Amino acid sequence: MAQQKAKVLIVGTGGVGTMAAYALETGGKAEVTAVMRSNFAAVQKNGIDIDSVEYGHDIRGWRPTIIRKTIPNVKEENLQPFDFILVTTKNIQDIPPTVADSIEPAVTAGKTAIVLSQNGLNIERPLIKRYPTNPIISSISYIGATETSHGRILHDDVDAQKIGPFDNPGVPLEVAREAAERYIAIYNADGKLDIVFDADVKFVRWRKLVYNASYNSVASVLHMDTPRMRMSRHIVDDLIRPIMLEVIAAACANGVEIADDVPDKVIRADPTTTAFKPSMCQDADKGNFMEIETIVGEPLREGEAKGVAMPTLRTIYGLLKGIQLQFKERKGMWEAKFTPDNPYQ
Amino acid sequence: MAQQKAKVLIVGTGGVGTMAAYALETGGKAEVTAVMRSNFAAVQKNGIDIDSVEYGHDIRGWRPTIIRKTIPNVKEENLQPFDFILVTTKNIQDIPPTVADSIEPAVTAGKTAIVLSQNGLNIERPLIKRYPTNPIISSISYIGATETSHGRILHDDVDAQKIGPFDNPGVPLEVAREAAERYIAIYNADGKLDIVFDADVKFVRWRKLVYNASYNSVASVLHMDTPRMRMSRHIVDDLIRPIMLEVIAAACANGVEIADDVPDKVIRADPTTTAFKPSMCQDADKGNFMEIETIVGEPLREGEAKGVAMPTLRTIYGLLKGIQLQFKERKGMWEAKFTPDNPYQ
Questions:
Q1: Taxonomically, which superkingdom (chains A, B) (predicted)?
Q2: Which residues span the domain enclosing A10?
Q3: Would you say residue B212 lies in a domain?
Q4: Is the residue at A219 inside a domain?
Q5: DSSP states along B10-71
Q6: Which residues of chain A are within 8 Å of residue B322 when distances are taken between CB atoms?
């Protein structure tokens, strides 16, 4: 008898989540439940159209096994426990609800492994606190995949991920490791994808921050694509490179060694022939909340706690918080009070 | 016989220049020639309407003695030399033409005193180089005056200025000082205005930069008014105060002592009951060029040259240069080249 398919819940069905759903279902080893919000009606009606660099440019009307509008409540709905919950939503720690809160009804204690496909540092902490007996797994993704409109995905850069277990003190390392390896096995069922196990989660995360804390955050303040940024000596020399060096110094102070040639490599990483904007900048352009704390705030705090001077990143942090405050105001979540006794004067 | 009226050319007839024209003409000791550009037609037709906190709220159809569209060419037009040229335009050192270039046809060597009513550091240098025998005078203005539409001025904060001679090595200090004092005498003809002589030009300029380099530049990056900025602990503590302390350290290293209590005073200087935006921020909102070099670049260079660490201001400088680059692109003065061999990679 064939092994039972793994039950996977996917929370966040933009480009990254949808391509994960596609890989997991078509691999034949998983059954996916996808939670959709703004795109639910469009996908229920017409399915998903995918233009993929890896699976073909003309996939039409595809659907995962189950789509639904809300997080399942496993107990109340009397569902089988989920083996995995893959979270690909943005991680906005300064805006409720948190990831830990929102997935709660779908988590079975001691059973469900939670895969966080999100950038930045210390994203596992609230999950470990809330779910001390569940494996928490890190995925750092390098895919290029965007939902161009509801139910339409442009997958223009190959799916590559580094996956490993976060250190959850309540879960034996071997159990967490096995969960990560099983996730890779069902995701990369035919072994053709570049989805690899990497136990050094800390390194993988700091290494990706060299790009994200610099390009993402500066692009978001400037509303500028990365090729244009590279055309300006001021932006590269006064902003991008200093931030990279600060992040590398912070990593080093936290026991993570990043090679000296990384800044020059990462400065030149993006193509220069198209006006690519990092995801945080796309959010900033739309007035959507940005992942400030996990991408900028946490590395800043980790570095400063070890005595590393990070003045460039701290300045960018203050600016991003100022921009986020204006986004909150526009969405009615913060009110400016023009009183003579302004509380913070 | 009454003394002949001083001939004053005013270049830049926004709020500050127009109120200067009004004070000079109505004082009876000066005859003003005002150079108008975008507002020329409106003022020629209807004159200027002024709503003034000092002169009355209902001044209608006022005109200076002469209005014209271009800088006069004293030699070619066979005009009497100007005693004073007052420059109130923005000082955008990274965008031609420079102030020194544009006023040249109106300057009579060894005669015309040039009054620079502009903020920032080292603005006198190109003038001294070009006009080595002319008195160059500093005016730091604290007036609140805005051209709300062509030919309409809202003058909502009193005219206060600190005026003194820049140190021009080719002009005896006594001559420069007399020119500054004569300018004050014709401007403040009835002695009622708070227009005072202050020989310590360097101090006056650095002191005003404590506000301008911090609030103006951060407001411009954030597109945010100063009361809202003060409602955010991040903006005040991570941005405004660090910049103020860096500017004060740079001033100190350059022999200008600014008292310890200045940051706290300046942080609280603006009213909190209306959404006031500093002038550079108003420019940024409109996509107009910002006075980056005189307000931010020069204090940064002066401080760093003396070994002062100014990382917060350097970060803001890089961002402002990035924003200015995008303004240049929008105005067709810079072209992005999306080539694989990007020159600055």
A1: Eukaryota
A2: 6-199
A3: yes
A4: yes
A5: EE--SHHHHHHHHHHHHTTSEEEEEE-STTHHHHHHH-EEEEETTTEEEEEEE--SEEESS-
A6: 218, 222, 224, 229, 232, 234-235, 239
